[in-house]
Amino acid sequence: MQKSVFLPAVAHAAPVRPSAVEEQQAEQPLEPLEDPAAPQSELDEMAWCLLRSKLTAMRSHSPSFGAHLAK
Predict the structure, then answer these.
(1) Cα(first)–Cα(last) distance of the chain, in Å?
(2) CA-to-CA distance for 59 and 10, rounded, in angstroms?
C-alpha cells in the first residue's frame, strides 16, 4: 500500500538570487576538463581494473546483465 505524499505549492515563493560566489564563478571561463577515463593515479587505475573485472564476471555469470546498455 502506497502512502500519498502532498507537497506544498511553491509558485508563490520569491525568486532565489544567486550568491556572490555563484556570480563570480559564472563570470570565470570554464577550464577544459581532463579525460575522465584516464587514470589519475595508481589507485585509480587499480580501482578501474577491479571494477572492470567485476563487471566482466557479472556479465559472464548472467548473459542478460547489461543487455539494455548494448542497445
Answers:
(1) 35
(2) 45
CA–CA distance, 9 with 12 (Å, rounded to integer): 7
Residue 65 in contact with residue 58, Cβ under 8 Å?
yes
pTM for this model (two decimals): 0.34
Q: Which three cell numbers stand for residue 29?
A: 571561463
**What tens-digit pLDDT sequence spans the chain (71 residues)?**
566 666 666 555 666 676 766 776 667 666 666 666 666 788 888 888 999 998 888 877 776 766 666 65
Cα atoms found within 13 Å of the Cα of residue 24, Cβ hemisphere only: 3
**What values do phi and psi take at 62, rounded to 5?**
-130, 105
Using CA atoms of 64, 54, 38, 30 in order, give the dihedral in degrees to the nearest 10: 70
The grid coordinates of residue 3 equal 502512502
